[in-house]
Amino acid sequence: MSLRKSANLWAIGLTLYDMIFGMAPYEGDTDAQMYSKLITFISEEEWPSILFIDPWHREKTEALKFIKRFLLLSTLTRITWHEIEENPWIKDEWHKVHLR
């Protein structure tokens, strides 16, 4: 996969994370802070806790599994477009949209 496509997938992962959890996985006021937080995020993999009592627990848990595949450091192990289409979290919806 080209670096460009892989970077786009990383950006999609960040967007999905923000949409599902209401915050970015890492933030900073300056480029240096952002870079530092990115390195911490990658090395420590600080994922949000999803409470069992959350009415969206099942959906958020499945979404987080999906999002983690986007936010892998190695472009060789990061999710591919084909894997996105086949992922159980969105597979049915993906095919509905594709049939339109």
TrEMBL record:
Q: Which residues form the Protein kinase domain?
A: 1-90
Per UniProt, the keywords (alphabetical) are: Signal
Q: Which PROSITE patterns match?
A: PROTEIN_KINASE_DOM (PS50011)
**Gene Ontology MF terms:** ATP binding; protein kinase activity
Origin, by domain of life?
Answer: Eukaryota
InterPro entries associated with the record:
Kinase-like_dom_sf, Prot_kinase_dom
Q: Which residues belong to the signal peptide in this entry?
A: 1-22
Entry-linked Gene3D superfamilies:
Transferase(Phosphotransferase) domain 1
Its protein name is Unplaced genomic scaffold SPHSTscaffold_101, whole genome shotgun sequence
Lineage, please? Answer: Eukaryota, Fungi, Dikarya, Basidiomycota, Agaricomycotina
